[in-house]
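quick one
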Amino acid sequence: MGVSERNNNYHYIISLFIFLIPFFLDNAHCIRFPDRVTQPARDQPDQQHLQTAVFALGSFWRSEAVFGCLPGVVRTTVGYSGGSKPNPEYRSFGDHAESVQVEYDPRLINFRKLLDIFWSSHDPRQVYGQGPDVGNQYRSIIFVNGTEESRMASVSKEQEQTRSRSSIVTTQILQLGTFHPAEPEHQKFELKQNTFLLQLIGNLPEEELERSNLATKLNGYVAELCPPNIQKQIDAKINEIIKKGWPILREL
Ligand code: MHO
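structure w/ S-oxymethionine:
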């Protein structure tokens, strides 16, 4: 056996030994490499952790804007809820109330905080309407999912009632049945009135616009319903883009 042949054999034996090490070590062959982690697209946050809440507090154009730019709110959708009519439409939605469905990341915002926003964003003592809008469709409702949310909603309603005894808080607390999404023209209604901003985010097709986190935030911004610091932040970002001439706003 020549020197190089012997070297080859050594290499072979060493390689084989290295290859077999994991099988000798307890558990070593159980090592699992994590599945490939795919990054969620910037504007499509990780769906798995999201929770959903539904509220009715007057015109759904405005309700959607109230929740849209809160940190942790990922998406909003307007619709009809709280009634029994099977296929509600804007021109005939029967006993339903105009509602907003809020999808949120519970790591960043919780149901209790959403309840605070709900109470501070409308007049729950107004009977048969909200602001200038008159009718049962504008009634105030907290839709709850299960007993814990139901308890939190009741406690918050009692607190709201104690703020003043001279009028009654009319808000209903209902277990959420079906939420019927409204027609496309009612989604992101406030933002749709602002062609400049629509253009600034790249004139998204309707379906994308409805699911977009950016559009959700801007919808609140247009209505000037974001918390003041967020309203300012968005102002600054938009002005920066206008100054730089950067064509499209991708994220906030
Ligand atoms: N005050 C609103 C109500 C619209 S709504 C979506 C209006 O301008 O008619 O019910």
